[in-house]
Design brief:
By secondary structure, this protein is mostly helical. The chain has a 3-stranded antiparallel sheet with strand order 1-3-2. It is built from 6 helices and 3 strands; from the N terminus they run ααβααββαα. α1 packs across α2 and α3 packs across α4. The chain is globular and about 40 Å long.
């Protein structure tokens, strides 16, 4: 698995600008997880964020306009948790454990 993840990491580098912004959202799940983990790493653990703050963090990490899709994916892949009404977001508790195979290779 480690070699496969390394290949995806290498391919993913082409998806970033020199300013370290994601230019295109990856289609393949492993590359998507790697890209989302990179974005999720920008959120402080133990801190709550408003939706607007989450959007700002995402905007600082991507060079395309679909912030809402990235926010949904961060939640669906459990990188972020949120209140049911969307009034507060925070870093998911176990995403680093869940995706440790991906993160260790990065």
């Amino acid at each position: 698995m480690e070699q496969e993840v390394q290949r995806y990491c290498d391919k993913l580098r082409r998806y970033y600008t020199e300013g370290d912004k994601l230019v295109q959202y990856p289609q393949k799940r492993p590359m998507r997880i790697l890209a989302l983990a990179r974005i999720a790493g920008r959120f402080e653990e133990g801190r709550q964020y408003t939706e607007r703050e989450v959007n700002e963090v995402i905007k600082s990490a991507i060079a395309f306009s679909d912030v809402e899709m990235v926010r949904r994916e961060l939640f669906e892949y459990k990188f972020l948790d949120r209140c049911r009404d969307g009034s507060a977001y925070w870093a998911g508790e176990k995403w680093r454990e869940t995706y440790s195979d991906y993160i260790e290779v990065q």
